[in-house]
Specification:
Elements (H helix, E strand, L loop, with lengths): L2 E9 L2 H10 L8 E3 L4 E8 L2 E8 L5 H9 L2 E8 L3 H10 L10 E2 L5 E5 L9 E5 L1
Parallel strand pairs: 1-4, 5-8
Antiparallel strand pairs: 1-5, 2-3, 3-4, 6-7, 7-8
Length: 130
Amino acid sequence: MFRIDHLGIAVKSVAAAKAIYEKLGLSVSAEETVEQEQVRLVMVPVGESRLELLEATSEDSTIARFIAKRGEGLHHVCLRVADLPAAVARLKRDGVRLVSDEIKTGAGGHQYVFVHPSSTGGVLLELVQE
């Protein structure tokens, strides 16, 4: 069964961006850094899903390039899957383009992979398994 795990939002400053959610009375996780993605982030639980606020830690990171090109805003949609290796194998078999063939470990120890926007109607899609 699939569900929306989180929406990734590229921001210039996590500290500044999380303020609105705190003012709304939402809880915000402690900051976490994912070195391989060159990003600092917080998670904001909203119902059964979360918002992931992403700040670049390097000027040549994916998030920094995204903000330079498009400005702050929605970066990706993340779906939770029960069996990530099986989902990746099925997508590869069906000719779906992935950003990387490697399943990586990210925030909170979650395993993830990104599906290229050319295969998803222009939306960067992340698949994650806890």
